[in-house]
Amino acid sequence: MTVLHLADEGEAADLAAFLSRLLHYDRGAAVRLQAAGTALAVFGRPPSFEVLAIRAVRLGKPYENGLDVTLDVTVSAGELLESIDEAAATAVVPAAVTGPPWAGVLPPRGGWRREAGLPTPGELRAMVGVAVAEFRSRTQELAPERRTRAELDRIGREIWSRTVGETPLPVRAVHAAQSLGFLRPRGAAGQGELGLLSSGAWLRLRTPYGSIAVRRAGLGALDVSVR
C-alpha cells in the first residue's frame, strides 16, 4: 500500500474538493498522478469542457515507495477520494486502472512562455456568467421541435469556443476553471498569480489553485508529450 503524506489538512481538503468536482461531471472519472520530491500533480479531464485540469498538491515529505522515488500512475478518482484522510493529511494510492486516451498525452513539462492580454479574475468570472446566461436564454427560446441535443451542442460550441479578450484562450477553459474552483477569490492558501502560458500547441490558464490546459485549435498532434 502506497501512502501519500500531504503537506497539511488544507492540501488534503483541496485535493478532495478537486476530485469531488471531477466526479460531479463523470462518476467514473480517472486521474493520472505524477509525484516526485514533495510535489504531486493530479491530472483530470472533465468531459463537458474538453480541457485538461491539473491540480498541484504539496507533499509533507518527499515521495518514496521502496526504491521508487517517483510515481506515475492512472487511478480511479472515486477510489482516491475515498482514501483521503483529511485529519491525518494522507491519501492511499489506489490500484492502477487502464487509463483513458487523454491520460497518455499530457502538456509539456517546460518551454512555457507568458501570453499577454488575460483579463482579471473578476472579469473572467463575469465573462463566464454572461456566457452561461446567453446559453440559457438562447436554448429557452428554441421551439420544442428544435430543442435537440445536436442544436444544444451547436449553440454550446459557438459560445464556448469564443476566445478571451485578445488571447487565443477559448472561453470553455475559463468556464472549466470556474466550475472546478480554480477561479475563486484568493485566500491565504492561494499562492501565485493568474496567468496565461503557451508551449507549442498547448495553452495553460494558471491560477493559485490549479491549471487548465487546452490544445490550440487546428494544430493537429504537434508538440505533445506522451509519457
Search tags:
eight-stranded antiparallel β-sheet, alpha+beta, 227 residues, disordered C terminus, two-stranded antiparallel ribbon
Strand content: 15-25%
Overall number of strands: 10
Average residue-wise pLDDT = 90
Radius of gyration computed on alpha carbons: 18 Å
User: Quick one: overall form?
Assistant: globular
Q: Number of helical runs? A: 5
The ordered string of helix (H) and strand (E) elements is: EHEEEEHEEHHHEEE
Low-confidence segments, given as residue ranges, are: 218-227
As laid out across the biggest beta sheet, the strand order is 5-2-3-4-10-9-8-7
The oligomeric state of the chains shown is single chain
Task: Report the sheet with the most strands, covering strand number, pairing sense and barrel closure.
Answer: 8 strands, antiparallel
Fraction in helix: 25-40%
Describe this structure in words.
It is built from five helices and ten strands, in the order βαββββαββαααβββ. Mean pLDDT is 90; it is low at 218-227. It has an eight-stranded antiparallel β-sheet. A hairpin with a 2-residue loop joins strand 8 (195-199) and strand 9. The longest helix has 20 residues, at 121-140. The two termini are 24 Å apart. The chain is of the alpha+beta class and 227 residues long. Helix 3 (121-140) crosses helix 5 (171-179).
Helices, strands, pairings?
Blueprint: E1 3-5, H1 9-25, E2 30-36, E3 39-44, E4 52-58, E5 70-76, H2 77-83, E6 90-92, E7 113-115, H3 121-140, H4 149-160, H5 171-179, E8 195-199, E9 202-207, E10 210-215
Antiparallel strand pairs: 1-6, 2-3, 2-5, 3-4, 4-10, 7-8, 8-9, 9-10
